[in-house]
Each structure stands twice: as structure tokens, then as C-alpha cells.
Amino acid sequence: MLYMGSGNFTTWLQMAGRGAGVKTAWTYHNQPSVLPQVLQAGFQRKDVFLETMVPCGAVDHPEPMSDAEAEGLIAQDLALLNTTYVDLLLLHHRCNTPNETARVWRVLESARNRGVARSIGVSNFAADDLAALLQTATLPIEVNEAHFAVGVMDWETIAFARKHQIQLVSFGSLAAAVPMDHPTVAAIAWRLNVSAATVLYKYVSAHGIAVLSSMSDAHPEYAAQDAAIFGLELTGADTSALDALQAGRTRTCPDCFTDACQACAAALVARGCFPAASMPASGRDNPHAAQCLACAAAPDHRAAVTRAACGAQYMVEKACGQAGGFPAGGGSGRGVA
User: Fold this and answer.
1) What is the pTM of this model?
2) Is 197:151 a contact under the CB 8 Å cutoff?
3) CB-CB contact of 294 with 303 (8 Å)
4) Do 14 and 82 reside in the same domain of the chain?
5) 151 inside domain
6) What's the whole-number average pLDDT of the chain?
7) Coil, helix or strand for 336?
8) Do 137 and 191 fall into the same domain?
């Protein structure tokens, strides 16, 4: 289990010991604080598993991205982290076109070949994104880090990753369509004498998916609760009961940080599907999600233009803040994006 890229890592590292994982990303803007926290915990750089991500297809970098720009982002990220290598380097999102994604992936492959990154992978890729990249990749896609949770399992992406030996890592496993106080979750937690958060994390882990955890300084007990998944076993009946809470197909990338999703959201706002003031950058916490989806589905000219701007239905759901099972108004409050 890797610690999510926010907050103070010191408590986590002291509890987990050598080999513990810490995560950051170009867009987190917390890189300079990471190594000092490692040293404060009494460790050296070599004692931790360090992950970072570089952006593509998102709103915070030049588009389209050139080889030189991608190389520059990696070099700047390493400089900010004050390290010569990372254990895992990911592409934060797919780029706006398959050709651009392939081009930036080649830069990650170069980093892997030079030893700048010991492993490489992607984040927020669905099965079709992975399939497109595999057509041109010359090195294995070792990791796909995306959103998986009770009620939000992208079984198509899970099956594809298993077939192609891509390790899945989950973020936001507590920000699910199924809240922590759901009766099924609560009953399992009570019987096993663990927290509901532990059950939600263990469910994802039981499907062979590594889990990213987050912990606030105000609640250091969360780290111990999350680490408790390693001493816990769910029964087949537990897993089946939690599987049954999923309603329909979900996608593994619910956020709206990409240029394509932002353009869709802007089109929805322009057509009155929800107020511009409530437009969330992440696409996850829109209190007007139901109104937005109903507006986009209306059989009038406005809805037709919206479909033209957004393309696939799942993009409409992402832009409205409803994709991937995230309920309107947010998740459990302990997940970090």
C-alpha cells in the first residue's frame, strides 16, 4: 500500500518503516517537502518507494506536449524532489490524442532505459486507453493507477490489466458510490471488529489491486486503520455482498482535469445545464450533477450540440460530476484525488 500524495508523510513512514511508499505528482506541487519528511522520519531516499506523475492532456501544461516538454517536466520534477531517480513514474492522464500519448510514453520509456525511473506506467487509463497505447509501446505498461472502490469497479479495465500483466493501483477507494455507513459495509465491519474504511480498502485489495491511502494530521489513527487490511481476510460471502452493491458499468477515470472533459463541461455550462460558478475542476463534487445529466439527455437542439461537444456518454457523466459512481456532493471525505 502506498501513501497518498498529500499531508505529512512522517507519521506514515515511521509506522510503516523502510520500503514504505510515498507519492507525489507534478500537479500536487508538494515535491520540495517530500525528501525533508523522509529525513525527518529517520530514513534516507533509498529507504522509501517514491512515485511521481507527469501531466498530459490536462489543463495545467502546454498542449500538445512535445518530447522536449515531456523531458523537461520529468527533469524539473526530479529536481524539485531532490533525487536522481524515482521508483515509479506515471503519465497522469492520457493525452488528447493517441499519437500524443504514444509520443509522451516514449519519453517515459527513455527515462526507464536511463534508470531515471525504475518502473513506468499510466494513471486514469480505461481499457480502451490501455489497448491503444499497447499498440505502440515497446516497454511494458507496468502500472495503471485509477479509481476503484466498492460500487465503482471497472471490471473491463480490471480484466484487461490482468490479461496484460498491468498492476492496478487504486486511489480514492473511500470516495465511492457506496458510503462508509452503508448497512452492508457496516455489518461486515462490525463482525470483523474493524473500521468501515478498512473494509472498503480491503475489498479493493482483495481484487488484487494495490491501495493508495490518505491520512490527515488530525487523525493519525487512520494510518493504522488502513494498514489493518494486511491482517484481514474477507470471506467469499463478504466479497459477493460488496460486489452486489455495484449498479451497472462504471469507468475508472471519473475526474475532469483533461482538456477534453473541461471543453465538455464548458459546453454544458454554456447551455445552462449547470451554473458556471459550481463547475468543479475535478468533476467530482457537482451538487447539480442530476440536473446536468437530465439537461444533457433532453432531446432538443441544445442537448444535440452538447453531445457533439462531449462525444461519448461517459464524458458527459465525467463533466457533470457523476462518472465512476461518485455521488453528487462528494464521497466519504477521506479519499484524496
Assistant:
1) 0.83
2) no
3) no
4) yes
5) yes
6) 84
7) coil
8) yes
| 196, 279: one domain | no
Alpha carbon distance 135, 330 (integer Å): 36
CB-based contact 108:117 (threshold 8 Å): yes
pLDDT at residue 244, rounded to an integer: 94
Number of structural domains the chain divides into: 2
215 and 126 inside one domain? yes
Cell reading at 328:
453528487
How do beta strands 49-54 and 21-23 pair?
parallel
Q: Which amino acid is at 272?
A: G
Domain contains 334:
no
> Which uninterrupted H or E stretch holds 54?
strand 49-54
49 touches 19 (CB < 8 A) = yes
Confidence category of residue 7, pLDDT binned at 50, 70, 90: low
pLDDT in tens, 310-319: 877 767 877 8
The three grid cell numbers given for residue 105, joined into one nine-digit string: 510514453
Cα distance between residue 295 and residue 158, in whole Å: 32
Q: Minimal CA–CA distance to 101: which of 79, 134, 140?
A: 134
Q: Answer with the one of 198, 216, 243 that is the final residue of a domain.
A: 243
What CATH code is carried by the domain that includes residue 158?
Answer: 3.20.20.100
Give the H or E element holding residue 198.
helix 196-206
pLDDT category at 254 given cuts 50, 70, 90 is low
What's the CA gap between 123 and 147, in Å, rounded? 9
Q: 51, 324, 26, 139: which is closest to 316 by C-alpha?
A: 324
Task: Check whether residue 149 and residue 207 sit in a common domain.
Answer: yes
Query: Per the domain annotation, does 121 fall within a domain?
Result: yes
The Cα–Cα gap between 115 and 86 comes to 9
pLDDT of residue 268: 86
- What digits encode the pLDDT tens for the residues 193-210? 999 999 999 999 999 999
Express each pLDDT in 57-112 by its tens digit. 766 665 688 899 999 999 999 999 999 999 999 999 888 888 999 999 999 999 99
CA distances from 269 to 89, 284, 301 (A): 35, 15, 15
- A 10 A CB-CB count for 118 gives 15
Cα distance between residue 331 and residue 177, in whole Å: 7
